[in-house]
Amino acid sequence: MAINVLENHLYTRVSEALDAIPAGEATDVYALSFWAYPEDDDPRRQVLDFSYNTNAQAETSAEYASDAGEARWNFAYWLQNSLALIGNLEDSVGARARQSWLNSLRLNYSDEDEENDFERCNQLARKIEREFWQLCARVGRRLHDEGLVTAKFGHGLPILIHNQEYDERVLDVTRKANPDGVCAEFEAWVNSLRT
C-alpha cells in the first residue's frame, strides 16, 4: 500500500510537470531525466528531480564537452531546469509517503542505529537506493505505457534514471523505464565510456 502511495505521488507530480512543458519547447526536447539522489546525503531521504534537455542545449554544450555524446547525455551539460522536486522536505506529502514506504519495506533505521551498527545500516542504505530506483523505473514505464510521453512529444523519448555516475545500474533501471529501443542512443553512449 505505502509503495503505491509513493509511486502514485511520483507519477502524479511528474505527469503535472510534463503537462506544463510549453508546446514550443516540447518540440526540441529529446530526453527526460529522473535524477534520483539522497537529500542531504541521507539515504533514507531519496528524492526525484524531474527535468529534460533540448537539442539546442546539447548543441551549445558541445563546445564545452569532450564530444557531442557527452554534451547530449551527461547531465552536467543539461539545462538544469528542475520541473518537479519530489520527496524532499518541502514536498510534505512526498516526504510522508516516502517515510511510509521505507517503513513498509522495513528498511528504515535511526541515526542511533547507524552509530551502533554502521555496516548494517550501510547495507540498508544500498537497498533503499535500489528500491527507490526500481520505483522510479516503474513510474517512467507507466508514463510511457499510459501514453503521456507520446501525447506530449509526439513520439517516445528516453527517460533516464540516474545520479552522477553512468554505470550498469543506471542502464538497468533506464532500460526498465523505457520501451525497447527508446534509450538505445543513451545506452551506446554509456557503453562507450567503458572502452
Q: What is the strand and helix layout of this fold?
A:
Elements: H1 2-19, H2 23-26, E1 29-38, E2 46-54, H3 55-61, H4 68-73, E3 84-86, H5 92-105, H6 111-116, H7 118-145, H8 148-153, E4 159-162, H9 168-177, H10 184-192
Parallel strand pairs: 1-4
Antiparallel strand pairs: 1-2, 2-3
Description:
This protein has ten helices and four strands, in the order ααββααβααααβαα. The chain has 195 residues and is an alpha+beta fold. It has one domain (2-192). It has a four-stranded mixed sheet. The mean pLDDT is 95. The protein is globular and about 50 Å long. The protein has helices spanning 2-19, 23-26, 55-61, 68-73, 92-105, 111-116, 118-145, 148-153, 168-177, 184-192; strands spanning 29-38, 46-54, 84-86, 159-162. β1 (29-38) and β2 form a beta hairpin.
SSE class:
alpha+beta
Shape descriptor: globular
Helix content estimate: 55-70%
Query: Largest sheet, order of strands side by side?
Result: 3-2-1-4
The major sheet is characterized as: 4 strands, mixed
Regions with little confidence, pLDDT below 50 for 5+ residues:
none
- Fraction in beta strands: 5-15%
Task: Please give a quick description of this structure.
With 195 residues, the chain is α+β, with helices and mostly antiparallel strands. The chain is built from 10 helices and 4 strands.
Annotation keywords:
195 residues, 10 helices, globular
